Amino acid sequence: MSTLSTPKSSITIRNPSTRCGLISSVCSVVEALPDIDGLPIHFHDKHGTSTPPLSSSGYVASLVPSSSETECGSRFQEDFYDAYQQHSRTAHMGILDPSYQVFTSQHGHGAIVYKVKNRTLIVTGDPLCAPEQFSPLLEELRQYRAEKGLKIAFMGVSETFAKYVRDLGWATFRFGRERIVNPISNPVLRKGAGKRMLSQTRQLLDPKRGGLTIHLYSPSSTSRELALEVELQRLYDCWREERNCKHGTSSQAFVTVYDLFSHPDKTCFLYTKDRNGCANGLATLRSLGANGGFHLDPCIASSSAPRGVSDLLVIAAMKLLSRTGIDYLSLGYEPFSDLQEIRGQSGIQAWLTQKGYRRVMQAVPVDGKAAYFNKFRPDDSKSSDLYIAIPSGLFQVQQSTALMHIANLKMSSFFSLSDVRTLRERRPEKDRGSE
Question: Where is the Phosphatidylglycerol lysyltransferase C-terminal domain (predicted)?
Fold first, then answer.
């Protein structure tokens, strides 16, 4: 992920040695008591050589801006860090994706995480600021977009921001929800549910059976361990390539491609090792300032790992956060098969939007994601709705195309010829007369 101010660029990440308070709490628990409710977690405290982060393409990324921009970059870097620490949510997962960028206010109003597709600036998640700063931050962003000739759309925003833009006359669509586990009161950890999963967890950790071990690595808590980071990034890259080969690159919606160690001050990692000391499972915990918790993604296992490793990592994360006193663990997005609410559109336009969304989602296995999340008994009282927001207009084709690129969906499946014929038939006679 690159970073942008207005209009300068090349803001670097904060000093990697800086520790997030949430991450510090988690590490302190493991350091003090490695056995977390019968689940041994080994803290990776090897003092290796301090190194800059490894990019997903295999080279070490530079953390040093040009000399002419050092002072300016440092200020905007601090502004972004502070905004993230206070307002970050699950939807800001793009900070770990090199294809996303950051826009930071020149006047301290906050920041946004975005990607440009189809001449449209797609903002993911709410602006990283307090609600009273929405207007000045978006005005700065409007000026920046005007210089670049970019349209705008938002994806994965909260009800708070959706209401704000609805009052401005924008259209909003409720397309999914965020599933949250409360580790402190979770029924699985209290052994009221998921007994088979817990039994499998014990078998995997039994030295005479599964022989797996669980480890915690926090890049901001120890010297950076480059060899471990290479191994874990490779594990993730191989998993992603195998998934794409098996299911196709467009088989899953809302997929982010991670450069795992690009923000070491905001992440820590649980991983499993086999008897030979090779990593075969990985779970990334990214801190969320707005919620006082973490987002768990990715949570994966290698093709050679025994069954149940990803479940083991979720259980480990829940137990660790429960012991730390953290009650918020986001499992991620759960998109709906239908838009649950369309505001700011009516008639033919709303019908087309719903029909197109339903057609696209039929090709995406969203039911599987919901079933997987339900295994861990999410707390629906903590669940939050997710919205798409776009400025008002007759047809926002450019923004719609860009949103579908971001969501990893095919625009070609949005409308069929029958939809076009129906649209023509339902249009008022006075509109059809000009054709």
Answer: 81-382
